[in-house]
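User: Hey, quick favor. My workstation is busy. Could you predict this chain's structure for me?
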Amino acid sequence: MTATDEDRPDPHRLPVIFILLTVMIDAMGIGLIVPVMPDLIRDVGGGTLAEAAIWGGILSTTFAVMQFLFGPVVGGVSDSYGRRPVLLVALVVMALDYVLMAVASTLWLLLLGRVIGGITAATQSTATAYMADISRPEERAARFGLVGAAFGAGFVLGPLLGGLVAELGTRAPFWLAAALALSNAAFGWLVLHETVTDSIRRPFSWARSNPLGALKSLGRLPGLRTLLLVYFIYYVQFAVYPAVWSYFGIARFDWTPATIGLSLALFGMMMAVIQGGLIRPVLAALGERGTVIAGHGFSIVSLAAIAVIPSGLWVLILTPLAAFGGIIPPALQGMMSARVGDDAQGELQGALTSASALAMILSPLVMTWTFARFTETGAPVYLPGAPFLLAAALSIAGLGVVLGTARRRA
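Assistant: No problem, here it is.
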């Protein structure tokens, strides 16, 4: 009797585990260091919390710019030279980058670390491509779902572990991140096989690696510019959380890194619950447009409340309400997807990716600058929550665009 395909062990089981660990470590690496960045920047460069926030915005934007610019480049390199060397080299370089940041004694070394980190974090597309290579067509959707779940798990575990490990010292989370990346590189060296064969290999092309190419599609998508604008505004105001949450928690409530990490992990868990479970019944009850409007309402109320509530405990209690704004992007994507043909779905997703990436580049600079202006010595009003009021105003603007579009269509 011969074993059926179902009885045979999956030959790709270990590579799948490696890919999921890679994506999770990418997400964890960002969250691990967020709780300690205010203290680290002040230790390295001195100065006030307001000045540290400005540098934090510069570091975050630098990371996002590198990830935006090098995402298509790294993907093109993997199509030409193979997924395995790209993934393994990126993990080793990532580990060395965390070591650099762990021993950095100047702000310029921290900036160099964020440049390198942004490039190595651009490998998520390569990890997803590898998953597609080793999956049958009927398996791909489920395995892509696993990739998303791994990223979400890393987003939750990163700040939680970072806050706890920070109790051992400001540099400790960087050493942990380096150890995780290096351990996964060793695991990948043992289990990862190459999937790019001569039949699918293609020469590297700078023309195909242009990260601004997706933006050209904006003018060719009829009737979508307004919804794309709302999508962009959402991500600008949403980025207030990773951009200034650590600085805000210290200035307003004197939070420790452990508390900051716990609060960010709580927010990440609620986002996962809402986008993974609650979005379907909400869409069924309110429809896509109603969901977008409701999401903006939750965002406006929660952002304004966070800005002025004097109790850190109540801010944590408000976290589920704040996370409820996460129903906006899926509903917007559904509205836009329904307005384009099947042959333009990839073009639409490229435009959405570019819009969110540009928002994540712009927002840290704007939000940290706002925080600094309202917390520095001589500020007209001491208001650490000012960035959240700005985010609430942006959310009001996004809601106005949605309602105005509905009136024009009527």
